[in-house]
Amino acid sequence: MRVLVTGGTGFIGRAVCHALRGAGHTVTIVSRDASGEASGDTIGWEAVGQGAAAADAVVNLAGEPIAGGRWSPARKEAILESRVGATRALVDAVGLATTRPKVLISASAVGYYGARDDEPLDETAGAGSGFLAEVCQAWEGEASRAEAFGLRVVRLRFGMVLAGDGGALARMLPPFRAFVGGPLGDGQQWTSWIHRGDVTGLVLAALVNEGYRGAINATAPEPVRNRDFTAALGRVLVRPAAIRVPAMVLRLALGEMADVLLTGQRVLPRAAERLGYRWQYPEVLGALRASVR
Ligand SMILES: NC(=O)c1ccc[n+]([C@@H]2O[C@H](COP(=O)([O-])OP(=O)(O)OC[C@H]3O[C@@H](n4cnc5c(N)ncnc54)[C@H](OP(=O)(O)O)[C@@H]3O)[C@@H](O)[C@H]2O)c1
After folding, report:
1. The pLDDT of residue 177 is above 60
2. Residue 239 Cα, ligand 1 centroid: separation in angstroms?
3. Phi, psi (deg, nearest 5) at residue 193
4. For 109-140, how does the pLDDT look when each residue is reduced to its tens digit (9 = 90+)?
5. C-alpha 263 to ligand 1 mean position (Å)
6. Number of domains the chain contains
7. Which of 56, 186, 239, 245 lies deepest, with the highest CB count within 10 Å?
8. Domain that residue 126 falls in
9. Is the pTM higher than 0.70?
């Protein structure tokens, strides 16, 4: 298949593109920077229309980093607009194309469910409240518009994606390696995570399997509490994980963004289970071992 990928230069996108090529697909990346060596298979956003018309499938991963520091009003606008605006531009381009791709696989996040306590959340759970929940709803809403153009739309609600070379884990590794890692706040909040190898596995499956449609939680079957996640990371790194970061310190340092770290949601990947997806990394210890080796 010819696959158009937005955000293909990022932490998830690089691995997705590598896996797509490995499976024999042809990849074109849509990037804000289409210059340079990689431009043979990279186009700019101004050419997204031609890209969409030439593609059998689209994978949409673009978005300004969420965890890049305090959320000023300008950053919140960039976080929202880089997802909602980019997805709108992409879907508009698909709508105008004379030949259209068959499927759109579009990123979303478990932040869709907002801050929840112990309630298990499958894909039938309602949206939550708060900034990220609102971003995810608007983002998924733009992606779903592609259904009116005849595309099968898959909305992958990613949990925290684990791999050693980026994302949240790469930010956690230095303090843990320096013996100052530990739980965030009281450590009771749930972490719904997924190894990046299973993100690429789900994308490849969703590409060819017609059963994948609508919202799909892209998480491992066993979410864990933050205190258990940090204990597992300590075990894998052979370091103590006892230095708790007080909630107050995180709130002072990060403002509203601290909520992402201090609250969570216990997400269950019921749709992927029903579709028979087999996780390469179903348990957190194995996923962390594979990520930091
Ligand atoms: N990593 C996670 O744990 C996680 C969890 C839940 C959801 N997600 C979502 O999954 C998607 C991919 O995540 P990631 O970790 O791979 O992110 P990433 O490494 O930050 O990459 C995202 C890509 O989006 C593009 N981008 C960045 N800012 C943009 C902007 N202002 N306008 C348009 N495009 C922009 C960039 O591509 P160019 O520079 O080439 O344009 C970048 O390579 C994101 O939308 C993210 O919200 C990730």
Report:
1. yes
2. 31
3. -125, 165
4. 999 999 999 999 999 999 999 999 999 999 99
5. 22
6. 1
7. 245
8. 2-292
9. yes
